[in-house]
Amino acid sequence: MRTTAVIIHFGPTRPTVRLARELAEFPSITTVVVVANDLRPRPAELGDTAIWLVPPRNLGFGGGFRYACETHPAADCHVLLNNDVRLTRRTVDDCLRLLARPDVGIVAPTQVNAAGIHPGVDGLTRVFGCPPERRTPSDDPDDVPWANGAVLFVKAECHRQVPMAERYFLVYEDTDLCFRARAAGWRVVVSPSIVWHSGGGTIPSVGHSYYATRNRIWFARAHGRRRQVAMVVLWQLALLPGNLAVWVLRGNGLASARCFAHGIVDGLLRMPRTDTLLPDEPRPTRWGAWTVGRARRKAQPAH
To answer: Which CATH number belongs to the domain containing residue 110 in this structure?
Structure first.
């Protein structure tokens, strides 16, 4: 199985270089591709271990993945990765064996962080949010509604049929991909093999308040009913006082509230096609809420 690992890069190069070097040593990984969404030139310390792609603009998470797949299409499997993950050869091999099954389109390892097993793969809440409960560990592969995009093994045939959506830019593109893959008849499976996801992230906390708000509404519009869209909006408004208190404590209350309000408006009024980005992404730059410096100091995990 020809396997291309795709690392979506933004920010400091050290974790990306480390991960690319590790993956290049795995016998089951054919090619390592890095998509530099910050448009940074190839770092000298990377050597010849990976292909470094600088796209024409910041394409976001889903757009960066599609860019790598389209630039290097000769693969049977694509492995999508954040640069803040640590995984072993055994995990990669176990996930690839699962993906080789004819009806399996997407495989994710069991993600672990300092708090334990990552939540979320057992389903979404009624308002399309990630449930707070931690996933119950399993010794066997489990079919799931969706899996977190920090590490995803995606069969090339599946991705050609249902390519990852670009419009979300950041947040919910992994969930959307899994939902559309299942609707197309593919299985989404989580492996008991472990991967460590530190959740360092590169989304500024201010920008995250925009994307988490807007994209949750867009996801509801794409996969839910009108009543659920209304529930999502009302639920986010109900959580606003608590979120505002957190934002104030972080020192960015006004900026985060402004991004939240724009997220509500954009979520209800503007939803481009699946393969289209809004022309001014990342949108929070319009309100002075997205800078590299801030991204490094106050970040939320992308996935």
So the answer is: 3.90.550.60
Q: What is the rounded CA–CA span in Å between residue 91 and residue 104?
A: 17
The reply to whether the predicted model has a pTM over 0.85 is yes
Q: pLDDT tens digit string along 261-298?
A: 999 999 999 899 999 999 999 999 888 666 533 333 33
Q: Among residues 165, 197, 229, which one ends one of the domains?
A: 197
Residue 175, H or E segment: helix 173-183
User: Euclidean distance between the first and final Cα of the chain, in Å?
Assistant: 27
* 246: containing domain: 203-300
CA distance 85 to 221: 31
Please work out, in degrees rounded to the nearest 5, the angle formed at the alpha carbon of residue 123 by the alpha carbons of 122 and 129. Answer: 130
Q: Please compute Rg for the chain using Cα positions.
A: 18
CA angle, 281 then 108 then 219, to 5°: 40
Instruction: With H, G, I as helix, E, B as strand and everything else as coil, classify residue 263.
Output: helix
